[in-house]
Amino acid sequence: MNGPRQLEASMDRLVTQMGGWFPGQRTVFRGHDLHHDLSDLDWMGLYVFGITGRRFSPAQLTVLHRIWTYTSYPDPRLWNNRVAAVAGSVRSTGSLAISAAMAVSEATIYGGRPVIRCIDFFQKSKQQQEAGANLVDIVKWQIDKYRGIPGYGRPIVGVDERIGPMMKLAAEQGLDQQPFVRLAFDVERVLLEGRYRLRMNFAALSAALTADMGFSAREHYLYFIPCFVAGMLPCFVDASVKPEGAFFPLSCDRVSYLGVPERVW
Q1: Angle of helix 163-172 relative to helix 58-70, nearest 10 degrees?
Q2: pTM of the model
Q3: 22 has which bridge partners?
Q4: How many CB atoms lie within 10 A of CB 170?
Q5: CB under 8 Å to 18, separation ≥6 — which residues?
């Protein structure tokens, strides 16, 4: 059924398995009473339950929390944080600042888009290995076709300072030797032993950790959306309390203009 008939079937009614609010009575969240059945969940537990429909262990939730913590850098020079800072500098609202900064977080080179490619690469590579493919050949094919491996390599500096602390926590929680985490390090070993010299970055490790928890590529992407927020707000606050327009101002004489020369109108 499609076209007008499909629209007519949805008129005056909402069909959903996600939930609903019954004013003055209760709120249903994926078939459970939010205030009673799910009252034991913290915010992260509820967030990923809403995405996946599954509950996660305390160890898994600890790791999921920490992935967000370790990606929250309050540095306004970073591309998305700069948007939040500019919003504060021009006296916009916090909601608009965060919304705009989150929107630009879906960058092609880093941010939201690469996290999808990372977990997709791991899941497909695991399937190929189980079918008998050699990891060296998988990596070589990926590089030859796409000129890189998602989650490996990093601008400015090769080492990612988040890998060590994250793996320490994963080991404490008993999640450091899961199949996709091992695969992530095996890929890095292939790259370092070959001519590519690319080290793993945090996008790859976080994708491997969630893949071991059973996340799909879409679920991983949805989980990752707010991961930078805790670093955005300090940038907004800092710019908001400084003189208006004082965030990285640029005078006209700093602009290298190559267009039409000055004219008299």
Answers
A1: 170
A2: 0.90
A3: 26
A4: 22
A5: 29, 30, 50
DSSP collapsed to 3 states, 182-218: HHHHHHHHHHHHCCCCCCECHHHHHHHHHHHCCCCHH
Q: Which domains does the chain have, with CATH numbers?
A: 112-224 (1.10.230.10)
**According to DSSP H, which parts of 90-246 are helical?**
94-103, 112-130, 135-146, 163-172, 179-193, 202-212, 217-224, 229-240
Cα distances (angstroms) measured from residue 91 to each of 111, 244, 245, 255: 26, 7, 9, 25
Q: What are the structure tokens assigned to 210, written together?
A: 């969630």
User: What letter does residue 22 receive in the DSSP assignment?
Assistant: E
For residue 159, the 8-state DSSP code is S
Burial class (CB in 10 A: 0-12, 13-18, 19+), 195: exposed
Inter-residue contact 212 to 178 (CB < 8 Å): yes
**Residue 125 structure tokens:** 């590579």
Cα–Cα distance for residue pair 245/243, rounded to 1 Å: 6
- What pLDDT digit, counting tens, does each position of 120-178 carry? 999 999 999 999 999 999 999 999 998 889 999 887 788 899 999 999 999 999 999 99
